[in-house]
Amino acid sequence: MLNEVYIAFLEEVNLAKDINSLYQSLFKAVSSVFRDFRLQIWESIDDETGYSIIVDLTENKESSMLKFRVKQFPESFKRTIKKDFIQEAQINDELLNKLNIFYGIFLGLSLQESTNAFIVIALEKKPKELSQNEIDFFEKLRIHFEKALKKETLLGKKNDDSKRLLMQNENLREQDRLRTNFINNISHEFRTPLSSILGFSKMLVTKNSLNDSTKEIAQQIQHAAGRLSSLITDFLQINRITTEGWLAHFEPCDIGEIIKSSVEEFSSLNKAYKISYKVSDNYPILKTDPKLVRQVTDNLISNAIKYSPSGSIIKITLEVSDNKKEILVTVTDEGIGITRDEIPKIFNRLYRSSSPEVQKTPGSGLGLTICREIIIGLGGKIHAESESGKGSKFTFTLPVN
Ligand code: ADP
Questions:
Q1: In this structure, what are the phi and psi dihedrals at residue 271, rounded to the nearest 5 degrees?
Q2: Distance, CA 180 to ligand 1 centroid (Å)?
Q3: Ligand 1 binding site (Cβ under 6 Å of any ligand atom)
Q4: What is the third-level CATH fold of 175-243?
Q5: Beta-carbon neighbour count of residue 272 at 10 Å?
Q6: Longest C-alpha distance within the chain, in Å?
Q7: The domain made up of 251-399 is a member of CATH 3.40.50.720
Q8: Rounded distance, CA 72 to CA 66, Å?
Q9: In the CATH hierarchy, which top-level class contains the domain 2-160?
Q10: 175-243 with 251-399: one CATH topology?
Q11: How do residues 254-269 score in pLDDT, each as one tens digit?
Q12: pLDDT tens-digit readout, 308-324
């Protein structure tokens, strides 16, 4: 059976169009031996500073989150199964442990002299002993993957440029980490006084003895503090995603119901908009994270409201793709739209359009970044279509599993 998998792997590798499909093929082959694993590539240009995780695949899809270094040292690769090339080790890294990764099978890759690289099959716990058959299988995968990678990629290029770029990349990551920590601390510090402002202004708004104009001021304070609070929540969430990654909790999930309750909630709070939804018959129940999906639908509907005139129509649809492999959710509005050159930028962190209509609307420029991270992390895709002045349509997909 492993032989068949190996042959299929070779065929796929030969046909692989790009490096990503190469990783996907390897993932598929490894999943004939392991369940619930992540497939990673660790790379190090010197042994002192540990490894960068440059690829992280889960459930056959590229995940969006791992952007950090791992401090694992060669001496911790205790158990050599075969030559120097297949080793097992406990993984003692705080961030990886948080992702439920405690054990790794390391398949060495010799790509260039100065670089240490491994394919890592990252697992929750020590697996049962590999059989000789399995060891041979992994050794063959390793050799062919390495060959294909050398042919295909960046990693295989023998030049100093790639080393320099790797170093630069590392510095940027470090700076990013420091900035992120700073934002994190500040945001937490803001939270406490903000909850007092929110609590007391709420008390004032409901106090009968106050006259109308004082109440209105209290309402404005409450509103502004509420906005600040959701901004801080966005900042904290995006920081967490980019530093630690996030853990999705997969469970059977009725996307139609999520859309329905999201629409009902927004409709009751925004009576000036006609928000409708249409859900196709027989859509499948997906195994995904309902809270995260709800966060995305909420965000897209909230944007549609924010950037459309009152009285306009907002439509949400749920369809199944023709090949039945994914579901598609769209949110369409009749609002201000987005110019063609801005469309590629709106998913970037902190990006907001400079148009006066957007600038006068409060926002953090983080909502769509969070949506994209979530959807990629759940194995789907998200994109926007729009024309300035003619409304926008956001579509996201999720895989049917
Ligand atoms: P925010 O809405 O807080 O500014 P987002 O990340 O949600 O941040 O959106 C980024 C930018 O994308 C917005 O500032 C706006 O310029 C544009 N945008 C998002 N959704 C829409 C929409 N439905 N219609 C028009 N522009 C939009």
A1: -65, -20
A2: 23
A3: 303-304, 306-307, 333, 335-338, 346, 351-353, 358, 363-369, 392
A4: Helix Hairpins (1.10.287)
A5: 10
A6: 83
A7: no
A8: 16
A9: alpha beta
A10: no
A11: 999 999 999 999 999 8
A12: 999 999 999 999 999 99
